[in-house]
């Protein structure tokens, strides 16, 4: 698997140049956006041979594209760039993070390996896809220490997230990869991004991203990508062609552009997140703060009172699911991102009902703190009211005036 291109350039340099090396020779500066669904060819004998080759191997087509469900040059640039950032041989892009996970599970079940071992918490919908058995897989949920024991002959995949959504729990990926033996370890690297963590270097064979989050970075594009070796990528490309979960070329264009600012965004947003995490940790209205040792721009915290009042109280921060955008978002996992996970399973995953998950953006730290501080006070007044007098009709009282 060591055909991975030797990276001598730094991540920051790769972020702006990978997938674009040929542009100057083409007389271009920005990457071209190719929206074609189909491509003309008068040589149908040659096309037949190329299609046979793809069906047999799943190797990326060489020469002109054939049909947009098979390949697209703009999307290929994004795949190439992301692979370079993750340090893998290649990458395969999908319509969303969930489409990427689906293709990965289908690739394993197609090989007769229907059993998955997974560690909670995972992103709510990933948990649901496994728990529901919707794709015919069977899951065994374990603690990291239980991975080796849970592996059976028909185990096709071990799935973990680190830092995990939404608790930001961190795992020792190198130790995990060791416990997996010959079973591929898939790490969802959505939260860390390759700026903070490159799971392939720790032994993960498959690295998943919801590109919707930090890779896009602006809250305006849905996408997913698997960074992996060429052998697994060939299976993924065949599944993508057959099932159609392709990334739209415009999304590929936006994601490639997003990658160029990824290192700068992640570092700036992480610095602000670290400031907010420290203040929250010192705040009596907050009972627990989850902030990864690795750093990052996600902060989760448990409040003493009603978390819904904090969501209702923010003004600058957007109360919305999703993450990784240039603006700050906050949500209540128990109500939104992890609602689809059964209550007991949420608890097993350490997802408290008092937990809030915040994705820190590029705003000024003081402005964000002012908004959080105000929203936390609104909650406190509501809770005090709740404790001392029953709320008629369950309505929340007006929040206390903001204090700076
Ligand atoms: C959002 C998310 C996903 C799913 O990605 P979509 O692009 O929404 O399909 C998977 N894993 C993690 C960690 C996520 O945050």
Please provide a written account of the structure.
This protein folds into two domains: 10-39 and 48-260, 3-Layer(aba) Sandwich (Aspartate Aminotransferase, domain 2), CATH 3.40.640; 263-386, Aspartate Aminotransferase, domain 1 (Alpha-Beta Complex), CATH 3.90.1150. Helices cover 39% and strands 14% of the residues. Helix 11 (307-313) packs across helix 13 (365-388). It has 404 residues and is an alpha/beta fold. The protein has a seven-stranded mixed sheet with strand order 1-7-6-5-4-2-3, sandwiched between helices. A five-stranded mixed sheet has the order 8-9-12-11-10, covered by helices on one side. Mean pLDDT is 93; it is low at 385-404. Helix 5 (124-132) links the parallel strand 2 (115-119) and strand 3 (138-142). It has 13 helices and twelve strands. The protein is globular and about 70 Å long. The structure holds pyridoxal-5'-phosphate. Pyridoxal-5'-phosphate binds next to helix 4 and helix 5. Keywords: Aminotransferase, Pyridoxal phosphate, Transferase. Residues 380-404 are annotated as: Disordered. It holds the Pfam family Cys_Met_Meta_PP. Its cofactor is pyridoxal 5'-phosphate. One of its GO terms (molecular function) is transaminase activity.
């Amino acid at each position: 698997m060591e055909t991975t291109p030797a990276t001598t350039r730094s991540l920051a340099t790769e972020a702006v140049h990978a997938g674009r090396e040929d542009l100057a020779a083409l007389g271009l500066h920005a990457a071209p956006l190719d929206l074609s669904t189909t491509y003309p060819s008068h040589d149908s004998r040659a096309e037949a041979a190329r299609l046979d080759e793809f069906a047999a191997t799943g190797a990326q087509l060489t020469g002109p594209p054939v049909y947009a469900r098979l390949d697209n040059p703009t999307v290929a640039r994004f795949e190439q760039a992301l692979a370079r950032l993750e340090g893998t041989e290649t990458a395969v892009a999908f319509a969303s993070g969930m489409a990427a996970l689906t293709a990965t599970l289908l690739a394993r079940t197609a090989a007769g390996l229907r059993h998955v071992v997974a560690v909670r918490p995972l992103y709510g919908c990933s948990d649901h896809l496994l728990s529901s058995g919707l794709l015919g897989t069977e899951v065994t949920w374990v603690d990291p220490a239980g991975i080796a024991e849970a592996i059976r002959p028909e185990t096709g995949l071990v799935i973990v997230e680190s830092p995990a959504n939404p608790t930001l729990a961190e795992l020792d990926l190198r130790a995990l990869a060791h416990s997996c033996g010959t079973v591929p370890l898939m790490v969802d690297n959505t939260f860390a991004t390759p700026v903070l963590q490159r799971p392939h270097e720790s032994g993960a064979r498959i690295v998943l991203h919801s590109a919707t989050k930090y890779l896009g970075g602006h809250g305006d594009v849905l996408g997913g990508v698997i960074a992996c070796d060429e052998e697994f990528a060939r299976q993924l490309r065949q599944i993508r062609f057959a099932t159609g979960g392709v990334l739209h070329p415009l999304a590929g264009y936006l994601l490639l552009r997003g990658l160029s600012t990824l290192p700068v965004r992640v570092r700036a947003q992480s610095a602000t997140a670290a400031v907010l995490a420290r203040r929250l940790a010192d705040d009596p209205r907050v009972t627990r703060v989850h902030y990864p040792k690795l750093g990052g721009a996600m902060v989760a915290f448990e409040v003493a009172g009603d978390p819904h009042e904090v969501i209702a109280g923010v003004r600058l921060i957007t109360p919305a699911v999703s993450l990784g955008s240039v603006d700050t978002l906050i949500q209540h996992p128990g109500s939104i991102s992890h609602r689809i996970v059964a209550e007991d399973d949420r608890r097993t995953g350490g997802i408290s009902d008092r937990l809030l998950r915040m994705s820190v953006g590029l705003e000024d730290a003081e402005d964000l703190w002012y908004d959080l501080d105000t929203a936390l006070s609104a909650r406190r007044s509501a809770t005090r009211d709740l404790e001392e007098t029953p709320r008629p009709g369950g309505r929340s009282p007006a929040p206390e005036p903001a204090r700076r």
